[in-house]
Amino acid sequence: MKRNFLNFKSFAILLLALGLMTSCSSDDSSPSPEPDGETPTDPDPEEEEEARWITIAGAQMGENPGDGNGGTLIYSVSSTDAKDPSVSIDPFNNGFTVPSNRTARLQASEDGNTIFNISYAGDTGGNYTKYKVEGGQTFTQEGTNVSIEPYVGSAPRWIKLFDGDQTGAAVYVSTEHVIDDNGTAEDATDDTYVRTEATMGIVTLDLVNSQIIEFQEHSVPLTEEEESNGYYISRIDMPTLNAAGDKLYIGARLSKVDPATVESDREGAILGSKTIVLDYPSLTNPTVITSTVGHGNTNGYRSINAFEYNGDVYQANQGDPEGSHILKIGADNQYDDSYVFNLDDALGVEEAYILAWRPAANGKAVLAYRHAGSAEGAAGAQGFFALVDLNAQTATLIDEIPYDPDFYLFQYQGFAVDGNEIYLTQAPVGQDGNIYVVDTETGLVTKGAELVNATGSHFIGAW
């Protein structure tokens, strides 16, 4: 029989983890007896280790199934209950509504005890808030709101840097076609296209004290040849800090116009994957590096697209004509083109497209993807999960997870990492599903708590 989770068990586990289940007087080192005469025991170390919160997020339907435009609801359970298939989680009826006009962009602290949010679009777009995770639908706001809208707009692309939950970074890029050096593209019929100016803005945010740290704007040019052929950086996202903590990498998407007409050109060659490199924390001295291994974009979409591991940064690319790659940026802040990890080859598919991914500390990751053979479902192409090894450069379909044509992962955002275990959500659009827990070291997959869905809605991850 399924049981609805009422949060009592998780609350008790949390109290155990905090060591609050024992009571001592200030002048007596011996434990006070319980009413029945028994002496309380110390918390079980294994229970302490299990007391991590796992927060599940669901995106509600707006006008169309799977669009996620109806807002975001979150609900938290203990890691013990997340692994228990008799637990039932229903965020769409019982969850906490995260402030956001559309799908919220969520981040979590490394221990799972805090959720960070920056509202996306609408009147509150660009507002940063953080919440203490207390189980179930209880998320208590901590600190004050701060708006980054004046710096990066009301629909910011932002990420939490991996610096001990201290800093967030948000970015934007604006573009303008340059005609005869100083004109605009509106009446360009008789004019000469010169290039497209891409202006990048970046702001860093103190997550602890809820205040702006630094803001910089830069022009981000490509090579003269690339620009004369109509290429420019049209979108940026997913800032990632290097191991030394002195450089920030920002993923980029390239677009192209036809220089003769200044109209969008989708038939041009796809250039090598590019990343913007900035000095950190000053956010100055931008340069652009280019991969000769991967082609296509590195900005990702809703989830973190690059991670530091073992001194290097590993980055996914999208839209690569040879299938998505995981690329490597070395400690010298350049692409390591000796590292070749192609998902088509590793998975035996065509046109693999990395939708989201997350490594554990051992260099093994869970990766969400689609490919040319994906069925077309209610909201888009069917998604799959793979277990990836960055060192061995291997990827294997996780076939213990059920797949459905309506299993849609394009908007997937988060994986919860607890040691070598990675928590993920599985549920087709509008259908119930489950949490699954992948032990990245052994490959063991555990089917966990039931996820109760709502019409047209879908789950976007675990934190």
Automatic annotation (TrEMBL):
SUPFAM superfamilies per record: DPP6 N-terminal domain-like (SSF82171)
Keyword Metal-binding: no
Lineage: Bacteria, Pseudomonadati, Bacteroidota, Flavobacteriia, Flavobacteriales
Acidic residues bias spans: 35-49
Alphabetical UniProt keywords: Signal
Region described as Disordered: 24-49
Signal peptide: 1-26
Tree of life domain: Bacteria
Protein name from the UniProt record: DUF4374 domain-containing protein
